[in-house]
Amino acid sequence: MSERTEITLADGVRLHAEITGPADAPVTVVLLHGWCLDRRTWRHQVDALSGMGRRTPRVIAYDTRGHGRSSATGRHGATLDQLGDDLAEVLRRLAPTGPVVLVGHSMGGMTIMEYAHRHLAEFTDRVAGLVLVSTTAEGHTHTRYGLPDHLATLLRAGETLGAGLLARSGAWRPHRAVLPVLAPVMRWLLFGDRCASDDLGLALRSVGRAPLQSIGGFRASIGSQQRLATLAAFAAVPAAVLVGDRDRLTPPACAESIAAALPHAQLTVCPGAGHMLPLERPEEVTEALLTVVRRVNCATRKNLRATSVPLRRRAA
After folding, report:
1. Which of 26, 58, 61 is nearest to 44 (CA)?
2. Residue ranges per domain, the chain?
3. CATH of segment(s) 3-315
4. pLDDT tens digit sequence for 235-287
């Protein structure tokens, strides 16, 4: 059974979240989706986490501001800075104690990095595991859309101009009417060799829910973010990094630079896969996530035993 809840942030934005797993679980997993998507991206992983038996964690999957069932955000709130602050508030409200595993896809991974950058003490105190999927720490440095450099440069210039116009277009969603026509383009951009029709349909419906100001507004900070140095804060944390070798938005070079900065990270490159790994390669993403959660569970049990021994001795 899942529990639906909303939290209202200081600027009035409401974040919609779904929570599963036991309230007294020693570990909490927080799932962060990508740009123009929503929490449903993680449907396979939520199911897998709920099947861990006695080790089932608490799982929080929430819609980023301006996405899914969360309320719209103004232009000034459509930044990674704000998303990092939002994540801090989600943890304070919905998971105030205990170790957490942060799992981010695309913009969700960048949100985790921004949270570490802006709330380092909280990050260091709370985060016990990381899974970074199809994401980057270097903005659009490596993004070529699978095209030659000169064409990629032209496409990026057009995308940047278009994003600026969309960011001023408010909270309406006229693009929903033309998404069926854009389906082949979306399939090429987001997926690799294999693409189930229901996965493409979910991606299209998610994009259709995102208002124009979210589609355009987040583009500037996503393209400019540089957080490789921040990864030093992750160095001792059990981590997994995954990417598809056909990813046109965050190609393997993005994951390789992240993994190079994380000495304990397990890097997985999925052959033939594109950008939507949680949907198109659910087994690989789930296995990496479960591995990290098991490691955190094990470390948490050891810590509990270590702290309880002195108490038993004093009682004796």
Report:
1. 61
2. 3-315
3. 3.40.50.1820
4. 889 999 999 999 999 999 999 999 999 988 999 999 999 999 999 999 999 99
Query: Directed axis angle between helix 80-94 and helix 107-118, to 10°?
Result: 80
pTM: 0.91
Q: Which two tokens stand for residue 183?
A: 């389906």
